[in-house]
Batch of 3 targets.
Target 1
Amino acid sequence: MISLRRRGMMLYEVMIGVILMAAFATLAVEVIRSSLRVSRDASEAAGLNARFDGAVAQLRRDVWSAAKITAANPTTLNIEVPNAKPITWTVTKEAALVRSLESERQAWPEVAAGITFESDATTVALVEPATSRRDARRIPLVSQLAVAGKGTP
């Protein structure tokens, strides 16, 4: 007796298999793209944070030894240090934080988006506006000379 059992696959079964494999391949490609994008964005964010930390560290050193601190406007800070030339810090329209000392200019690009300066007689605050990812924050910096009363009035 001859078996009437099918051997092989019907065309629609093959098509369903190909469609499922194509869908899986598409999802796999999107997952790989997303993980590469996240990796790149994390690397850029780490570089940006390192530049910002470097700028704040330099500003902290300048303010620490300042005899007089004045904020000419929200984007310009003037620091007078005893026995040294005045230092000017500026936030540019391109979001760079720039330190100027006579003809010497040091810039930290893209670290100061929306940042402003606030100043009183003894402290400076870097003010960062709130974003969709974090709340607003203030980074206070103190002048030891001004607090000790040895700065210029």
Note: The mean pLDDT is 88.
Target 2
Amino acid sequence: MENKVSCMSNSKWRKLFKAITPKGYGVEVSCWKFIDSEQIIKNPWPNANEILDDRFEDGVKYKGIEWIKIPKRFKRPPYEKIGYQWEHDLEAIISKLNELGKFCFDFNEDGLIIYGYKIV
């Protein structure tokens, strides 16, 4: 049986979302996994006005986020069918994360995963 340990608090999620803004870091595409679902949802990165104390403006609570992946390469709508891909500057995002404090994340050639909960 897998055991999940919490890596984030509401204040850490807020700090992350307010620091890694779509405008500042160009995060356009992210994949979200929630603890109560096996489904992975492709979402835009939240804007500053959507970030509340313990949840987003739409009611989704931070404590439900298992992990968020920012892919290294992505396609912009409506260009998904062509070969060109854009890239997120993951090295800059990791540098910002390290500046902000201790965050639980993995990084490889596919992207950056920031954990709300991690299997130990």
Note: Residues 55 and 62 are 5 Å apart (CA to CA).
Target 3
Amino acid sequence: MGKHSKYLDQSKLAALKGMRISKRAAKELSSCPPADLGCHTWTFTAALALFEGSDFDDEKIGELVRQHMTRDERPHNEVESAVASAKRVFTGELIAKKTPKAKRSNCLITSVARSGWNVAELQANSPCPPVGIQAEEFLEALFPGDPYVCCGFEVEYARTKKLSAFGDLPQHMQYVVPSAMTGPTGLTQSGKESPRCNGNTGQRMYLVTEFDFPVHDPRTTELFRSSGKSTTHDLCAAIIGHLRPFAPLSMVVHSGGKSLHAWWRCRGATDKQLEEFFRKAVTLGADPKTWTPSQFIRMPGGIRRKDDGTTAPQRVLYWDPTKMHR
């Protein structure tokens, strides 16, 4: 069984009986996690299991994945991209560079959180008070030399152009890729031209860790009880403070939601060192998806647009101008 086996839905599995697919593919297809607990990753693993365990074409595989998702596609081409990537892995065209593997340790998180910073202490330890600084000014410091930068109002509407060409728009945007891009567009894994893809992302400049503890997750409730912390932001601050001796901390951004995004400078670090650091972060609850070079993360000083139509500022809480990529 795969990594999503704990979400196996026996009724969905029974409904697939008689379909010409392998037992493994049927079980993976019937094991989509809840919307906020890994559904995106599942779209790829389910598609790959179907390529390996059936003779269906791309269209049929995409149809089955959509039918068994626990939420709507986000963005609209999420399944199409997952199927294209899975096909390239299945055919041997692409050997996926996997995210460094690590298992989350709630015991370690509790130990770190119990004696670690809270948000107020994180802000108090900021080398430079991030007050009165606009989003575009943060970007100019993070990405010197006016390189191509990828930003977005929404995940599915990425724009890549010279940083100076954005003007004051970044303060109204939600997302940015934490490394400079190589040009206006590049090629996706499926060979399509796109402004935001790994094929258009340059050398890794910053590795961003997002510590996000879902409020309604029983594990988060237990962490609050055992660590003495009362908010998800305090949990995040404690972990970021714990990791600070292991890598240069450039910035911490409030997501406008439940999490904090920490920017760590990569200059001078080897791939092995970055992998070891990220593995340590994942053990402490970091979301593995931010390892992807072209992953959108929250714009420093930008605006979060929530599903209910309200907005929230994505405030910079910690700022060290000496830890920029220069």
Note: The chain has eleven helices and twelve strands.
